[in-house]
Specification:
Rossmann fold; alpha/beta; single chain; 14 helices; globular
Length: 341
Amino acid sequence: MKLIKTLPLALCFFVITAFKADVTTAVSNAETAAQKDPLPSWNDGAAKKAIIAFVSNATNSKSSQFIPVEDRIATFDNDGTLWSEQPAYFQLFFAIDRVKAMAKDHPEWKTQQPYKAVLENDMEALKESGMKGLLQIVATTHSGMTIDEFDAIVKSWASTAKHPTKNVPYTDMVFQPMLELLHYLRANQFKTYIVSGGGVDFMRAFLPKVYGIPEEQILGTRAKTEWDYNNGNPVIKHLPELDFIDDKEGKPLNIQKIIGKKPVFAAGNSDGDLQMLQWTASNKLNSFMLYVHHTDADREWAYDRGSHIGGLDKGLDEAAKHGWTVVDMKKDWKVIYPRYQ
């Protein structure tokens, strides 16, 4: 399913889910384990040692690398950094499923592209529809409703939807080692943010329960919206237009606009995150830049340069040049997912 890096992350703006109690349990387990080993799902390699050394120095008031609490800002990409993103961004699967669910009210879609391609599971035809066709699908499935209506649709979808190759709920595909990292940082008074190309309304529907990050600390791509007083029952409605793309250079721009401070810690997995890591590296305070490198074809996927999804090319070169930490998933992580490994 090679559709998708032809898509910018911004196309995947909106999608998914309330999280299950099982992952909440995994989060609690991560907090308990952190009392003995802050990163128990990490092997004792260079990446783990570098993270612990950074946090230890950042919280030691006698260290030359001490970071005041108010400056302990950590930003994380989502797709491919905190959960899987193959064979396509999960938001796209949501849009495809929405077309199929809505098709009963649109018999004309059986003969109209790009809907025909979706209904026939013809990914090549969908790809051939290009940006125009994909935008049409996004506009059809994500606009013309209030934010509350969208939230309900996302949660309903997530209650039954499963990943097409792993055959598990999408919400089972978060990375246990990254859950531990988030909790380790917060335990040391870092403020953690999501800065993703995914839709901000989509992420705010489910990420707080997934990662323990509140809605106001989630930054993403924004669709245009409109206010409607609605006879004394005010609503905000989604419009079929983009307002801001939170990818590449959009990430530091959004960080500055919304957070107002440079991060001291940033994690990503693709060239779409490079500018966020470069911005973090320019901080006068000691900073930590981390790339998650997908190297495990058995437990997850292996990809980097030239990938249609989450391509990591310039970022790998930049990391090597400047000594940033690159996490080798196969070597550095004992487990990938919380539940089924």
